[in-house]
Specification:
The chain is mainly α. It folds into two domains: 71 residues, DnaA, N-terminal domain (GMP Synthetase, Chain A, domain 3, 2-Layer Sandwich); 48 residues, no CATH class. The chain is built from six helices and three strands, in the order ααββαβααα.
Amino acid sequence: MAKPRKITGLQPISHLIKRVTGKMLDHPNSKAHRLWRDWRRAVGDLIAKHTEPIRLENGVLHVRVGNPAWMSNLTFMKPTILLALQKSYPDGVIVDLRFKGESLRHKVDTTPSKPPPTLPPSLPEERQKAQQLVEQVSDPDLKIMLGKLYESHLVRKRCDPAYRKR
């Protein structure tokens, strides 16, 4: 049974919002997402279906492999895969690969990935509406986070027909 977390004290809600949405608002292309995308591009859909990049640590990319046959094949393909990855990371971020034979944790989608759509900048009236909504909030950090979140919502609502229907 999991050990219950110890509550260490109250924190402003802005910290929670930043933990949950901060990275998405400030950096929609996170390092983890980029690593998965670049791994798929380097190895192709077939290999990506049987593997998962786990972590990048000290220049070594650790990769989970779903079965022993793929583990053997990937060991022989390692130099080719490493060269392909180094094209995506030319600054020497990835210098080696380590394969680990384990069950895959996630079902890997084999459809070709396309870059996520980027939102256009917000319009002045959207920024103004977001500022008006949060003007009563006294915590400055919370005010900023809620403003960004609502502004992003307004832009999505304007640009994405599927989002409008919600």
